[in-house]
Q: What sequence folds into this?
């Protein structure tokens, strides 16, 4: 199961919630295993998950009729109670015995049609006897006006925003989530290796980008983040691969990562085409030490802000005295920025099971950008890396 | 330019708007050419575009400081006035003359920091002297509460929801948009061809899916939609490629399409591994005639509902008497479902320059799913296909 249900129950109790409703695609998939295609690839389509507090009723999924077939086929889905809404026609062959898969679909299509997503959600809440309780609703996935409409439709309930509850729960990963994140990180590393295979003088950034995404797709990943810049273009934080041709001495910066079984990667590595200058070596070393310092320090109970301070000071001490950053990392999971952010002001405590991107990017217009970014999971005594490579500078024979 | 600015001005005038604000990623990119990475790959990050009505001021882009580098490098961007918000540090090499690209970035980083996205938007509106005017705001891309907050911050303005204005404008494409859609459709066709190359008995759906997405990535597209199902699984509308092995006689249904330079494809084709049954031939022929009937009928001034009726009746007449559908197609563009939907109740008139997916899917549990879906652009006298292949059944030698 993707969902950390113990933590969800704990957070619901702590926030005085009798039930919680997921509305953003990442929270719907996270809490139920249901990946509703339209909701992920467009803005607007609505799917929800209702999870009552322990002992308060059975969880349910609210889905458009046109998307219930995915409930029948997705192994991740652990919730069987479904409320569907909207018209969608599927026929069946008369006189033929249906496979288990087809029968599951037919059963879903045969459920009553609740007309609209909000109708279906209110029915699910009322059927659990939760119409007079405190309901937390992930406010960011709803359409404008829906939140107030739900409160009007459930006059005896108290409806509260609950996006932050989901974000807090998601911060501590289940073993299945860690497995997917590890694979996502590996695919990103393999994709960098494929791009570097063609990194010769005269090759374009665009060609490296195509090789990168082609490998991601070949490994069963979905391309998402593909910042690949060479020479001075590597100083652009969000550089998109362009027509610039690689030259001898170029820095090539990768800040990249796709999605694997819904889970994100976000890693960074640097290669140099030929012999790096002394300054590149020194700066990259300082940035790498910054990441290693953070990794040595991260363990349950440490403040995020303390990790930030230690990493930034290490980089400053090791070779970039003017180093300045907004953050030195962030959580990663089904969203590319999970809790916590590693910033100067975030005093949240690191917990066992959090997965983090730890990074020390440095962007210098007129020269280049350098960056090390690793993915790790927090264990009882420190960190376990999700990487197969280390963050050292890669030196390519031109 | 992606934006149909004449149509936008016309729609602003018709709706009594003095300015309009894009907030959804598709509307931001469409109206300004600016593709703000974080906004596209996550839910929450905010970028906006303010476009005053003709003669009411200069358009502007509101962007996070961490994303302004993309404004300096993206050829599509035609708006030069920028309001940035938030802290993000980028250094520069002292004593080195900067390239034009680096200088553009430096200029953007040197703009005043407006703190928050809403502050920056309100400053942009006030700087145009629009603080007491009627402002249409694309309500779906904002964070909860932002819409009301903008009204409070601009007490003399009247703020109105304007998502539908953007959707109406986007329905009629500019030549550049049509070019991208054509290429997106071709990439989908090429990707189907790559998947079919390995479609032999014993190959899995998953292998076909990998071949499909690999080809899309190789052609510079981003994988999005990849419904590929075989045998009875082809009857699942949103089938995800699984471990089922292809068998002699299988229907293979593709309902697929990636993104190319931000523009979507959505097409469908059917292959049969070996000799199709008489019923498959007859049903597929009926569905194909349904699409062809719609294509013959589509021209400026025709009602969407009339197209729906004609297509459904043609399918019924040609071999599937019980054929029933929610729609027979939809607009396509930077979003996978642009205006108009081709439904029984939609009396909107087809216009020159609209781009449509025209489709007649048929799903039969216990047998298979069949579907033809073509992408076209509406011209003065009819349709121009964006496809390189036709919708005929592909018969594979097993």
A:
């Amino acid at each position: 199961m993707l969902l950390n249900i113990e933590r969800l129950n704990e957070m619901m109790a702590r926030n005085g919630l009798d039930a919680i409703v997921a509305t953003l695609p990442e929270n719907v998939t996270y809490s139920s295993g249901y990946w509703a295609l339209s909701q992920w690839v467009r803005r607007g389509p609505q799917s929800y998950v209702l999870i009552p507090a322990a002992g308060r009723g059975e969880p349910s999924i609210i889905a458009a009729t046109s998307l219930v077939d995915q409930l029948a086929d997705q192994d991740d889905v652990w919730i069987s109670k479904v409320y569907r809404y909207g018209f969608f026609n599927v026929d069946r062959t008369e006189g033929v015995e249906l496979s288990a898969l087809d029968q599951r679909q037919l059963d879903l299509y045969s459920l009553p049609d609740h007309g609209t997503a909000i109708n279906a959600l209110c029915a699910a809440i009322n059927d659990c006897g939760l119409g007079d309780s405190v309901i937390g609703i992930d406010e960011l996935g709803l359409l404008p006006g829906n939140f107030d409409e739900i409160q009007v439709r459930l006059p005896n309930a108290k409806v509260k925003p609950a996006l932050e509850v989901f974000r807090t729960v998601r911060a501590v990963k289940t073993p299945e989530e860690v497995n997917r994140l590890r694979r996502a990180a590996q695919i990103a590393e393999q994709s960098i290796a494929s791009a570097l295979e063609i990194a010769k003088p005269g090759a374009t950034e665009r060609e490296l980008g195509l090789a990168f995404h082609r490998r991601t797709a070949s490994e069963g990943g979905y391309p998402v983040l593909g910042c690949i810049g060479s020479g001075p273009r590597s100083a652009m934080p969000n550089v998109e691969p362009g027509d610039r041709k690689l030259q001898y001495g170029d820095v090539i910066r990768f800040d990249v990562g796709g999605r694997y079984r819904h889970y994100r990667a976000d890693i960074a590595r640097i290669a140099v085409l030929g012999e790096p200058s002394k300054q590149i070596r020194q700066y990259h070393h300082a940035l790498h030490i910054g990441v290693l310092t953070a990794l040595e320090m991260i363990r349950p109970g440490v403040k995020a802000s303390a990790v930030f301070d230690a990493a930034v000071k290490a980089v400053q001490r090791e070779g970039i005295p003017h180093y300045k950053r907004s953050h030195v990392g962030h959580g990663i999971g089904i969203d590319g920025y999970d809790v916590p952010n590693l910033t100067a002001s975030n005093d949240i405590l690191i917990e066992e099971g959090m997965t983090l991107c730890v990074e020390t990017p440095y962007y210098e217009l007129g020269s280049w950008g350098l960056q090390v970014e690793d993915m790790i999971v927090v264990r009882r005594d420190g960190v376990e890396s999700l990487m197969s490579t280390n963050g050292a500078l890669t030196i390519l024979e031109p």
User: Anything to note?
Assistant: The longest strand of chain B covers residues 251-260. DSSP finds twelve helices and 19 strands in chain B. Residues 5-170 of chain B form a domain with the Creatine Amidinohydrolase; Chain A, domain 1 fold (CATH 3.40.350.10).
